[in-house]
Amino acid sequence: MSITLYEISEEYRRAAETLSDLDLPEEVIADTLESLAFPLEQKAINVAAFIRNIEATADSIKQAEEGLAKRRKAMERRADSLKAYLQFNMQQTGINKIESPLFSLSIRDNPPAVIIEDANLIPADYMREPVIPPPAPDKHLIKKALTDGFVVPGAHLERGRRLEIK
């Protein structure tokens, strides 16, 4: 059974607390903590390698998704093209219906569609009102103001931390 990074870090933290309470020379404390840091560093390196592996797998999946999306769109365009080809030829020959054991083909009228010739001539009663988005804080503007030394009520700057694996 392998020990987890969490367990190693807890052991390191407890040892640091215990050693600081004892009346030991600094070099003894440093040597002890250094010996405990090695497994922590090794486990951290292994976790980072696992993260890289997961990221590479996610990237491969993303590339596959993009490839499949391109292929799907090409197939949809091809199907639309063939439908238009079939419809054109059926209309040219005056054939409006073809029956087969697998399916039936028929030329049908679409429901009426509204064509707007000039939107400026349409009365206001027939116009939709656009939904106005609610006001939202402009974080870039707020950040610039705070960085420049201004006080912005309800906002402050905070620097987080992240793990960087290079």
Describe the structure.
The protein has helices at about 5-20, 25-95, 140-145; strands spanning about 95-100, 105. The chain has a two-stranded antiparallel sheet. Helix 1 (about 5-20) runs antiparallel to helix 2 (about 25-95). Strand 1 (about 95-100) and strand 2 form a beta hairpin. The longest helix is centred in the middle third of the chain and has 68 residues, at about 25-95. By secondary structure, it is mainly alpha-helical. The two termini are about 30 Å apart. The protein has 3 helices and 2 strands. It is elongated and about 100 Å long. Helix content is about 55%, strand content about 5%.
Features of the shown structure:
166 residues; two-stranded antiparallel sheet
Mind telling me the C-alpha Rg? 34 Å
Q: Strand order within the widest sheet?
A: 1-2
Overall form: elongated
> Could you list the spans in which at least 5 consecutive residues all have pLDDT below 50?
none
Strand portion: under 5%
Count of helical segments? 3
Oligomer category: single chain
Percent of residues in helical segments? 55-70%
String of helices and strands? HHEEH
Number of strands: 2
Task: Compile the SSE list and pairings.
Layout: H1 5-21, H2 26-93, E1 97-99, E2 104-106, H3 139-147
Antiparallel strand pairs: 1-2
